[in-house]
Design a protein that fits this description.
Layout lengths: L8 H6 L7 E3 L61 E2 L49 E3 L4 E2 L6 E2 L14 E5 L2 E8 L5 E7 L5 E9 L6 E6 L3 E8 L3 E8 L4 E9 L13 E5 L2 E10 L2 E10 L4 E9 L7 E5 L2 E5 L4 E4 L5 E4 L7 E9 L2 E8 L10 E8 L10 E7 L18 E6 L2 E7 L12 E6 L5 E7 L13 E5 L3 E9 L5 E11 L2
Length: 518
């Protein structure tokens, strides 16, 4: 993964031939949003950032001097004559460049011919053995259906939401909240507030979304919960809730779709910390791969932006608080940002050939888990599952570690085997018994139309402590296991997943809590 010099910053956004990584942006915007502006089609306020809030790319209709292509106005904004100051990622092991002090650098952090620490030869990394006294977890009670079949259909994962993050689950003060799409009797996003037993204690809060939502991020905040939703029609919108479920803000438009400086899908990740809200957009367009970061204040004013372009990445990017800043990652890498969206550190590439990944915050740093590309080109397209842990500075603590082997393939809503932009049928949550990994076994063959959803816990070195445990009732399987999420509270972990209903074409969501055993 080659580093790119600053002079190429804007060109790499416009041209598909660019490779490597570069970052652009950081301009502070003084524009705000009009919370009282009219709501288009009843969805949300039409406010947005002022025209001078910063951006990258070309003005609509302006010719790209680099390739002579005239822009159609849909995927460009900003002033090409005055590009933002570019930043360059620091030189680290895993960037594909042999830097001073390194013996090799093959562009990943695996232990192979070029070791994870960019050394040649030597002994393989020796993981400490698992602690026999490490806490384990067990189900707190049976799985609970938190919606019925009349509320949700199988369309929840067939385009109503993007494949990334099809639902959200967050814990706050011993309670949980789940955000999910509903399309009966009309398309809407709903939030239910639950106790550890899965009983509804507030809600469901609901907002009708006639055009649907491509994606959503849902997470705990200091006041309760936050939701960032993205739409190709309405841009990035924010809602906030108190811990008791009261709506504090409903679909405030932070940035309209028309103001997007590059053609990114709006919102597949987000987080909030210290009065800052981070929205992360990701998309592959015209052979360009990248993430766009946009920060907003509590009042909704733009507070900076940043763009990264990659030669390899996945679309399913996650964000979590990191002090006054944020950590952002997928299965390929972790980037740590400060409060002003400056890159504080990054992990280098953790691994190549990643299908989809997720990330979570944990004591001592951050964890990421991902599915590899298929082990073989022949059905059932089985995959392996890997994990890595990085410290607060983004440096890997051990080589990328394979946890599961030959997991049957997941399927996308159209029935194809899961590709590089499909949903990660895995989830992570850090809690009192370490990091919990949840995954869907997927589809094994034509005789096995679905599979179970499983959970295990890992110690700080990636050793399995709690062995694989079913999330659903023993023997129950699902064909919708990519619709899952996990969160942790002070007693344990909760999982939400989707299960096909009794009538074909319907579905319901199932909640289950797991607690530390005595």
């Amino acid at each position: 993964m080659n580093r790119v010099i600053p002079a190429l910053a804007l060109v790499c956004i416009a041209l598909p031939a660019c490779s490597g990584i570069n970052l652009t942006g950081n301009a502070e915007g003084d524009g705000g949003v009009d919370a009282d502006a009219p709501r288009p089609d009843g969805i949300g306020p039409d406010g947005g950032a002022d025209d001078d809030s910063g951006g990258e790319g070309l003005d609509a209709g302006e010719e790209d001097a680099a390739d002579g292509r005239e822009d159609d106005g849909e995927d460009a904004a900003g002033d090409a004559a005055d590009p933002p100051e570019a930043a360059v990622l620091p030189a680290v092991c895993g960037d594909g460049v042999v830097d001073p002090g390194e013996e090799c650098d093959d562009g990943d952090r695996r232990d192979d011919a070029c070791r994870w620490d960019c050394r040649l030869g030597g002994d393989e990394f020796e993981y400490p053995p698992p602690d026999p006294a490490a806490p384990r977890i067990a189900p707190s009670g049976p799985p609970v259906a938190i919606t019925d079949d009349s509320e949700v259909s199988l369309r929840v994962s067939s385009g109503f939401f993007r494949d990334c993050h099809p639902l959200g689950l967050a814990a706050n003060g011993g309670r949980f909240a789940v955000a999910y799409p509903a399309d009966q009797p009309y398309e809407a996003v709903r939030v239910r507030f639950l106790d550890r037993d899965g009983r509804t204690i507030a809600g469901p809060w609901e907002h009708e979304t006639p055009w649907g939502l491509p994606s959503l991020a849902f997470f705990a905040t200091g006041e309760g919960y936050g939701m960032l939703a993205g739409s190709y029609v309405y841009g990035i919108q924010r809602s906030r809730f108190a811990s008791d479920g009261a709506a504090l803000e409903e679909f405030l438009t932070l940035r309209s779709h028309e103001e997007s400086p590059i053609p990114l899908a709006d919102m597949v990740g987000g987080a909030a910390t210290s009065g800052r809200w981070l929205a992360v957009s990701s998309r592959f367009v015209l052979d360009w791969q990248g993430w766009r970061f946009e920060a907003f204040t509590d009042a909704g004013a733009p507070a900076g932006s940043l763009v990264l372009s990659f030669d390899e990445a996945t679309e399913c990017v996650s964000a979590v608080p990191a002090g006054d800043g944020f950590a952002v990652g997928d299965g390929t890498q972790v980037v740590v940002l400060d409060a002003d969206l400056r890159v504080a550190s990054w992990s280098g590439a953790l691994m190549h050939d990643v299908a989809a990944g997720v990330m979570c915050e944990a004591p001592g740093g951050f964890w990421t888990a991902w599915q590899s590309r298929p082990v073989s080109p022949d059905p059932p397209f089985v995959r392996n599952v890997w994990v890595a842990s990085v410290d607060p500075n983004g440096a890997p603590r051990f080589p990328a570690r394979q946890i599961l082997t030959h997991v049957p393939r997941a399927i996308t809503p159209d029935g194809d085997s899961m590709g590089p932009t499909a949903a990660p049928a895995i989830a992570l949550a850090a809690g009192p018994a370490g990091v919990a990994l949840v995954w869907w076994e997927g589809v094994g063959d034509d005789e096995t139309p679905g599979g179970p959803v499983m959970l295990l816990t890992l110690d700080p070195w990636g050793n399995v402590v709690t062995p694989a445990t079913p999330v659903l009732a023993e023997g129950e399987i699902t064909t919708m296991g990519w619709v899952l999420a996990a969160a942790a509270d002070d007693l344990g972990y909760a999982v939400v997943t989707a299960v096909q209903g009794e009538v074909l074409g319907t579905a319901h969501l199932v909640f289950r809590h797991f607690a530390v055993t005595p």
